[in-house]
Amino acid sequence: MAAMVEGLHSFAREGRLRVEWATSADRGAHAGVNQQLNRSGWAHATTGGPPRALMLTVARGRRRRLLYLYDPMGESVSDAERVRAQGYLAHADGVVLVADVLADPTVRGRLGPADAERAQRARPSAQGPRTTYERLTGELAALTGRRRRLPVAAVVTKRDVLDRLTSLPVPGDGRIDHWLGDIGLGALVRALGHDFGSARYWAVSSHAATGTGPLESEQRRAAEPVLWLLAASGLRTGPLTGRAGGGAGRVPWPRRRQEGAGQGGGNGDREGGYTPV
Predict the structure, then answer these.
(1) Which of 29, 102, 131, 248 is deepest in the core (most CB within 10 A)?
(2) Which pLDDT does position 49 carry in this prediction?
(3) Which of the residue ranges 29-33, 112-116, 138-142, 217-221 would you say has the lowest mean pLDDT?
(4) Four-residue CA torsion sign, 52, 59, 176, 38
(5) SS (H, E, C) 23-56
Protein backbone atom coordinates (compact mmCIF):
# COMPACT_ATOMS: atom_id res chain seq x y z
CA MET A 1 0.00 0.00 0.00
CA ALA A 2 2.91 2.35 0.73
CA ALA A 3 4.27 1.72 -2.77
CA MET A 4 0.88 2.39 -4.35
CA VAL A 5 0.53 5.70 -2.50
CA GLU A 6 4.05 6.73 -3.47
CA GLY A 7 3.13 5.93 -7.05
CA LEU A 8 0.05 8.14 -6.96
CA HIS A 9 2.21 11.00 -5.74
CA SER A 10 4.75 10.27 -8.48
CA PHE A 11 2.03 10.73 -11.11
CA ALA A 12 1.02 13.94 -9.30
CA ARG A 13 4.58 15.28 -9.47
CA GLU A 14 4.43 14.81 -13.24
CA GLY A 15 1.18 16.78 -13.36
CA ARG A 16 -0.89 13.83 -14.56
CA LEU A 17 -2.92 13.58 -11.33
CA ARG A 18 -3.86 15.74 -8.37
CA VAL A 19 -3.45 13.88 -5.09
CA GLU A 20 -4.13 15.22 -1.60
CA TRP A 21 -4.41 13.65 1.83
CA ALA A 22 -7.96 13.62 3.13
CA THR A 23 -6.84 14.46 6.70
CA SER A 24 -3.66 15.25 8.60
CA ALA A 25 -4.02 11.86 10.31
CA ASP A 26 -3.73 10.13 6.94
CA ARG A 27 -0.63 12.14 6.10
CA GLY A 28 0.89 11.25 9.48
CA ALA A 29 0.12 7.55 9.13
CA HIS A 30 1.85 7.38 5.78
CA ALA A 31 4.82 9.38 7.06
CA GLY A 32 5.23 6.85 9.88
CA VAL A 33 5.37 3.97 7.41
CA ASN A 34 7.93 5.84 5.30
CA GLN A 35 10.15 6.44 8.34
CA GLN A 36 10.12 2.72 9.09
CA LEU A 37 10.95 1.88 5.47
CA ASN A 38 13.84 4.36 5.44
CA ARG A 39 15.25 2.91 8.66
CA SER A 40 15.00 -0.78 7.90
CA GLY A 41 13.73 -1.32 4.36
CA TRP A 42 10.73 -3.25 5.74
CA ALA A 43 7.33 -2.13 6.93
CA HIS A 44 5.87 -3.56 10.11
CA ALA A 45 3.15 -6.14 9.61
CA THR A 46 -0.41 -4.86 9.94
CA THR A 47 -1.76 -5.64 13.41
CA GLY A 48 -4.91 -5.06 15.47
CA GLY A 49 -8.55 -5.41 14.51
CA PRO A 50 -10.34 -4.08 11.43
CA PRO A 51 -8.05 -1.57 9.73
CA ARG A 52 -8.59 2.16 9.47
CA ALA A 53 -8.74 3.35 5.88
CA LEU A 54 -5.94 5.49 4.48
CA MET A 55 -7.81 8.21 2.61
CA LEU A 56 -6.74 10.43 -0.28
CA THR A 57 -8.49 12.55 -2.86
CA VAL A 58 -7.44 11.70 -6.41
CA ALA A 59 -8.41 14.00 -9.29
CA ARG A 60 -7.86 14.05 -13.03
CA GLY A 61 -9.42 16.73 -15.13
CA ARG A 62 -12.57 17.98 -13.41
CA ARG A 63 -13.40 14.65 -11.80
CA ARG A 64 -12.16 13.48 -8.44
CA ARG A 65 -12.67 10.60 -6.07
CA LEU A 66 -12.26 10.02 -2.36
CA LEU A 67 -10.12 6.89 -2.21
CA TYR A 68 -10.30 4.58 0.79
CA LEU A 69 -7.40 2.12 1.02
CA TYR A 70 -7.73 -0.70 3.56
CA ASP A 71 -4.82 -2.98 4.46
CA PRO A 72 -6.13 -5.83 6.64
CA MET A 73 -3.69 -8.06 8.48
CA GLY A 74 -3.25 -11.55 7.12
CA GLU A 75 -4.99 -13.12 10.09
CA SER A 76 -8.15 -11.22 9.08
CA VAL A 77 -8.79 -13.80 6.37
CA SER A 78 -7.73 -16.86 8.35
CA ASP A 79 -11.33 -18.00 8.88
CA ALA A 80 -14.88 -17.08 7.87
CA GLU A 81 -15.75 -15.35 11.15
CA ARG A 82 -12.80 -12.97 10.89
CA VAL A 83 -13.59 -12.16 7.26
CA ARG A 84 -17.19 -11.31 8.20
CA ALA A 85 -15.84 -8.91 10.83
CA GLN A 86 -14.25 -6.81 8.06
CA GLY A 87 -17.44 -4.79 7.52
CA TYR A 88 -15.85 -2.39 5.02
CA LEU A 89 -15.66 -5.24 2.50
CA ALA A 90 -19.43 -4.94 2.02
CA HIS A 91 -18.87 -1.47 0.52
CA ALA A 92 -15.77 -2.21 -1.57
CA ASP A 93 -15.79 -1.14 -5.21
CA GLY A 94 -12.62 -3.02 -6.06
CA VAL A 95 -10.10 -5.47 -4.66
CA VAL A 96 -6.31 -5.47 -4.81
CA LEU A 97 -5.06 -9.00 -4.19
CA VAL A 98 -1.36 -8.82 -3.29
CA ALA A 99 0.19 -12.19 -4.11
CA ASP A 100 3.47 -13.28 -2.56
CA VAL A 101 4.10 -16.28 -4.82
CA LEU A 102 7.19 -17.20 -2.80
CA ALA A 103 4.81 -18.22 0.00
CA ASP A 104 3.08 -20.82 -2.17
CA PRO A 105 4.22 -24.40 -1.44
CA THR A 106 4.06 -25.42 -5.11
CA VAL A 107 6.24 -22.52 -6.18
CA ARG A 108 8.68 -23.05 -3.31
CA GLY A 109 8.98 -26.71 -4.32
CA ARG A 110 10.32 -25.65 -7.72
CA LEU A 111 13.21 -23.64 -6.29
CA GLY A 112 16.76 -24.89 -6.27
CA PRO A 113 18.88 -24.53 -3.09
CA ALA A 114 20.30 -21.09 -3.96
CA ASP A 115 16.90 -19.73 -4.97
CA ALA A 116 15.26 -21.20 -1.88
CA GLU A 117 17.75 -19.23 0.23
CA ARG A 118 17.00 -16.04 -1.72
CA ALA A 119 13.29 -16.60 -1.24
CA GLN A 120 13.70 -17.10 2.51
CA ARG A 121 15.66 -13.86 2.85
CA ALA A 122 12.73 -12.11 1.13
CA ARG A 123 10.53 -12.95 4.13
CA PRO A 124 7.73 -14.88 2.43
CA SER A 125 4.24 -14.43 3.82
CA ALA A 126 2.96 -16.94 6.34
CA GLN A 127 0.04 -17.75 4.02
CA GLY A 128 0.21 -18.38 0.28
CA PRO A 129 -1.97 -16.48 -2.21
CA ARG A 130 -4.17 -19.47 -3.03
CA THR A 131 -4.98 -20.07 0.62
CA THR A 132 -5.67 -16.37 1.17
CA TYR A 133 -8.02 -16.25 -1.80
CA GLU A 134 -9.87 -19.45 -0.91
CA ARG A 135 -10.58 -18.15 2.59
CA LEU A 136 -11.64 -14.73 1.38
CA THR A 137 -13.73 -15.39 -1.67
CA GLY A 138 -16.82 -17.12 -0.27
CA GLU A 139 -17.30 -14.62 2.53
CA LEU A 140 -16.64 -11.72 0.19
CA ALA A 141 -19.50 -12.92 -2.00
CA ALA A 142 -21.78 -13.08 1.04
CA LEU A 143 -20.76 -9.62 2.21
CA THR A 144 -21.07 -7.79 -1.09
CA GLY A 145 -23.76 -9.81 -2.86
CA ARG A 146 -22.21 -8.62 -6.12
CA ARG A 147 -18.77 -10.20 -6.23
CA ARG A 148 -19.02 -11.11 -9.90
CA ARG A 149 -19.31 -7.43 -10.79
CA LEU A 150 -16.31 -6.32 -8.76
CA PRO A 151 -12.98 -5.77 -10.52
CA VAL A 152 -9.85 -7.33 -9.01
CA ALA A 153 -6.29 -6.15 -9.51
CA ALA A 154 -3.91 -9.01 -8.80
CA VAL A 155 -0.46 -7.73 -7.86
CA VAL A 156 2.51 -10.08 -7.70
CA THR A 157 4.95 -8.51 -5.27
CA LYS A 158 8.72 -8.92 -4.68
CA ARG A 159 9.52 -8.64 -8.36
CA ASP A 160 13.08 -7.58 -7.46
CA VAL A 161 13.62 -11.05 -5.95
CA LEU A 162 11.72 -12.94 -8.65
CA ASP A 163 13.86 -11.36 -11.36
CA ARG A 164 16.98 -12.89 -9.77
CA LEU A 165 15.71 -16.46 -9.48
CA THR A 166 16.99 -19.03 -11.97
CA SER A 167 14.57 -21.83 -11.04
CA LEU A 168 11.51 -19.94 -12.33
CA PRO A 169 10.79 -17.99 -15.50
CA VAL A 170 11.22 -14.24 -15.07
CA PRO A 171 7.93 -12.30 -14.84
CA GLY A 172 9.10 -9.81 -17.47
CA ASP A 173 6.78 -7.25 -19.03
CA GLY A 174 4.39 -9.71 -20.64
CA ARG A 175 1.16 -11.24 -19.44
CA ILE A 176 1.50 -11.83 -15.69
CA ASP A 177 -1.56 -14.08 -15.70
CA HIS A 178 0.21 -16.36 -18.18
CA TRP A 179 3.34 -16.31 -16.05
CA LEU A 180 1.32 -17.32 -12.98
CA GLY A 181 0.02 -20.29 -14.93
CA ASP A 182 3.56 -21.25 -15.92
CA ILE A 183 4.75 -21.38 -12.30
CA GLY A 184 1.83 -23.48 -11.09
CA LEU A 185 -0.76 -20.90 -10.06
CA GLY A 186 -3.09 -21.22 -13.02
CA ALA A 187 -5.90 -22.35 -10.72
CA LEU A 188 -5.75 -18.99 -8.93
CA VAL A 189 -5.97 -17.14 -12.25
CA ARG A 190 -8.92 -19.23 -13.35
CA ALA A 191 -10.69 -18.60 -10.03
CA LEU A 192 -10.22 -14.84 -10.32
CA GLY A 193 -11.50 -14.88 -13.89
CA HIS A 194 -14.57 -16.82 -12.82
CA ASP A 195 -15.38 -15.02 -9.58
CA PHE A 196 -14.92 -11.35 -10.52
CA GLY A 197 -16.34 -9.10 -13.19
CA SER A 198 -12.87 -8.27 -14.54
CA ALA A 199 -9.28 -9.02 -13.58
CA ARG A 200 -5.92 -7.54 -14.46
CA TYR A 201 -2.43 -8.46 -13.34
CA TRP A 202 0.82 -6.71 -12.41
CA ALA A 203 4.22 -7.64 -11.02
CA VAL A 204 5.88 -4.95 -8.91
CA SER A 205 8.75 -4.42 -6.51
CA SER A 206 7.45 -2.54 -3.49
CA HIS A 207 11.02 -2.51 -2.16
CA ALA A 208 12.22 -0.59 -5.23
CA ALA A 209 9.29 1.84 -4.98
CA THR A 210 9.77 2.84 -1.33
CA GLY A 211 12.47 3.63 1.21
CA THR A 212 15.73 5.34 0.32
CA GLY A 213 16.51 5.87 -3.35
CA PRO A 214 13.16 4.71 -4.76
CA LEU A 215 12.66 4.29 -8.49
CA GLU A 216 9.89 6.51 -9.82
CA SER A 217 9.24 4.08 -12.66
CA GLU A 218 8.53 1.33 -10.14
CA GLN A 219 6.41 3.69 -8.05
CA ARG A 220 4.23 4.42 -11.06
CA ARG A 221 3.96 0.72 -11.84
CA ALA A 222 2.82 0.09 -8.26
CA ALA A 223 0.11 2.76 -8.60
CA GLU A 224 -1.33 1.34 -11.82
CA PRO A 225 -3.61 -1.24 -10.10
CA VAL A 226 -5.31 1.51 -8.07
CA LEU A 227 -5.60 3.73 -11.14
CA TRP A 228 -7.20 0.86 -13.06
CA LEU A 229 -9.76 0.39 -10.30
CA LEU A 230 -10.41 4.14 -10.17
CA ALA A 231 -11.00 4.14 -13.94
CA ALA A 232 -13.83 1.66 -13.37
CA SER A 233 -15.46 4.33 -11.18
CA GLY A 234 -15.44 6.84 -14.04
CA LEU A 235 -12.21 8.68 -13.22
CA ARG A 236 -10.20 9.09 -16.42
CA THR A 237 -7.11 7.27 -15.18
CA GLY A 238 -7.19 4.39 -17.66
CA PRO A 239 -4.54 5.92 -19.97
CA LEU A 240 -2.10 5.99 -17.03
CA THR A 241 -2.17 2.22 -16.55
CA GLY A 242 0.00 1.45 -19.57
CA ARG A 243 0.03 -2.01 -21.08
CA ALA A 244 1.24 -3.89 -18.00
CA GLY A 245 -0.56 -6.88 -16.62
CA GLY A 246 -3.20 -7.87 -19.11
CA GLY A 247 -5.71 -10.46 -18.10
CA ALA A 248 -8.67 -9.50 -20.25
CA GLY A 249 -8.14 -12.41 -22.63
CA ARG A 250 -8.00 -16.14 -22.14
CA VAL A 251 -7.64 -17.75 -18.74
CA PRO A 252 -4.49 -19.88 -19.05
CA TRP A 253 -3.74 -23.46 -18.20
CA PRO A 254 -0.07 -24.18 -17.37
CA ARG A 255 1.95 -24.48 -20.57
CA ARG A 256 4.46 -27.24 -21.31
CA ARG A 257 8.02 -26.15 -20.61
CA GLN A 258 10.53 -26.13 -23.44
CA GLU A 259 13.57 -28.34 -23.17
CA GLY A 260 16.35 -26.61 -21.24
CA ALA A 261 14.00 -24.31 -19.34
CA GLY A 262 14.60 -23.75 -15.63
CA GLN A 263 12.83 -25.82 -13.02
CA GLY A 264 10.26 -25.30 -11.64
CA GLY A 265 -22.24 5.10 -4.20
CA GLY A 266 -22.27 8.42 -4.90
CA ASN A 267 -22.22 11.15 -7.53
CA GLY A 268 -19.57 9.58 -9.75
CA ASP A 269 -20.78 11.18 -12.95
CA ARG A 270 -21.11 14.67 -11.54
CA GLU A 271 -18.26 16.94 -12.53
CA GLY A 272 -16.11 17.75 -9.52
CA GLY A 273 -17.99 15.34 -7.23
CA TYR A 274 -16.62 12.74 -4.87
CA THR A 275 -17.36 9.05 -4.98
CA PRO A 276 -15.89 6.72 -2.34
CA VAL A 277 -13.85 3.93 -3.92
Answers:
(1) 102
(2) 60
(3) 138-142
(4) negative
(5) CHHHHHHHHHHHHHHHHHCCCCCCCCCCCCCEEE
